[in-house]
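hey so u asked for the seq, here:
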Amino acid sequence: MMVNSYFELNVVRLLDEGKVSNDERIRFHSLVEAEHEMLRISNNPFEFEKEEIFCFIIREIPFGVLSVNGDDDCLTERVYLPDGTKLDERLFASGSIAGIFYGRLESQIRFQPGDSVRVLDLVNKRIWDGFIYAVPPTVEKVSKLYESDLPPVCLDASDDSYVVLDCPLSECKTDDDYMSAHSHISALRVFP
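ran it, structure tokens below
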């Protein structure tokens, strides 16, 4: 089955006080074209906008799906640093066309519990600081889950996430503190 899709380059720019803009979107027929334009922009970051680039996101989107906020239906997604270096990728579908998540290789888990990180929140168009509490499951862990005698389980892109606290764990004195301080953040939205 051939899927008709296009590649959308999102330029995420830093605004004042931790705010971001991801309104700059350009569509391409291929990933190579999108990456070429990304590198051109990274070499001329102020050509169109005066704000600093936080990251680039290239999403493969099936025709007929509207792109709104970065958490929509997409076939694949890649995140790049301002210089064009690939930071992370998800090579299976997400959103309502969810693909199956088989876990991350150990080498793909970029952070460990206790690490200080920056979280990109495209829905609220902001960046906030946090601390890693738990990492996405590994391929080995997911494989054991799929092979277990438990009721059938099918993990998706929502399971490819870090648990991030908005304060250090030492400040979470009760379960309620932990519950109000933690968020499940897509692995593609967590930055050093």
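The beta strands are 5-14, 20-28, 53-62, 76-80, 86-90, 116-121, 126-134, 161-165, 182-186, 190-191. The first strand starts at residue 5 and ends at 14.
lmk if thats what u needed
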